[in-house]
Amino acid sequence: MESDDMDYSDDDDLDDAMDYYGNEDDIDNVDPKKTDPEFFMYECLTVDEVEKVLNESVEKLSNSLKITPSLAKVLLNEHRWNSNDIIDRYRDNASNLLVSSRIKSGNGKKVAHVTLLCPVCIQSHTFDKFQNLSCGHSFCKNCWSMHFEIQVSQGISTQIRCMAAGCDVLVPEDLVLSLISRPQVRDKYNQFSFQDYVKSHPELRFCPGTNCQVIIRSQDLSSKKASCKTCQTSFCFQCGNDYHAPTNCVTIKKWLTKCADDSETANYISANTKDCPKCNICIEKNGGCNHMQCMNCKHDFCWMCLHDWKSHGSEYYECSRYKENPNIANESAHAQNLIHLQAREALKKYLHYYERWENHSKSLQLEQQTLERLKNRINEKVMKGLNSTWIDWQYLFTAATLLAKCRYTLQYTYPFAYYASMDPTSSRKDLFEYQQAQLEAEIENLSWKIERAETTDRGEIENQMDICEKRRLTLLKDFFPTTTSDMNS
Predict the structure, then answer these.
(1) Is residue 289 flagged as an active site residue?
(2) Which pTM value belongs to this model?
(3) Which residue among the candidates 207, 289, 319, 406 is catalytic per the annotation?
């Protein structure tokens, strides 16, 4: 696979990564694989291109083992398209592979007068009307054809098996296609088979975008972000779900399952309004920034914990850290009370992380609305001719894009932090929480500045953008998911 034909995620961010970690005087020597934790080589292929890739593997295996292409497809699909493994396993006994074959006879005219009873339809047919597999089970062609059509109607293709009870022999493609007569059924079979082949191939992933036919191919099987060049949909290449770094695939699956569990979330209602902690006036959150300022008393506070914003200084952003209940360890009450106390504490911990996860998700949506208001405000300034043009304000839209990327990463730090908090042996928990807090503080600073930008002086915001992205990349570089490990890897 030539690197010139490959793409990498976040094309526009590569230059940023080089600026942060590379030598600006010798930028051509910067290796993005070492500097950017999200660097990912992949291809966006069409259906025809993928079929060519698959056929090359089929031809290689077929020639190596001297077997039919149809059987080669069966073996490749069952062994996740690892040709070398199949060749090593079956090189010495290729003749024993499961193949489909017609019942043979030395004299065709004589066979024509022989009749057999089909065990499915319980009807007698001439010998040439039967078809068997290598397992020896034989049925009439009409029953095979009916069996194939029923299986295809249920979405089954490469996993069509012998009709004999308890027999797991798979039916090769050539036999299925030879006995399916209706064109629409043949088309469905080919469509379902192709989907099965792609899903079983470790280097291929269907783009999850709506009605998108693009297939992503990569030799890097890690939890990296792939972005379709056709529909712009981004997803995790390893699991196919929304991109979720720094949380790994196993952990994010557990987290999403937990969040969807009504038994835990029924008691929690995410409120859109809170009272000002100083004057108690009701405040509605209509922006993504969590640095709130009461319009009544001008008190600055944090939307998440309601503490004075001054306590959220750049030295340490305490709001993101969950504080354990010190009474749990010293509880000496009745065992039943202790169980209830532990259950309440477990729910409290979960809600701490869930609230922040949900809040950043909502902030992403609200900041998109803020961006629309910003466009209208800038358009008004430009139309009034206040010594500025649209070009003078473009840095704000760049800042808003970076803010969304940073906040998205921050959102996915909370499932990571929740499960790490449950592991008392975690050796890197404190470092992660520190970096998470630093990132969150800088993101809120950037959000605050963007929402209140009134001039074309870009220096302060661009400096804040630089800090935010460096914080984000530092956290990902230290905690980017590899396989299924988290803190202790």
Answers:
(1) yes
(2) 0.73
(3) 289
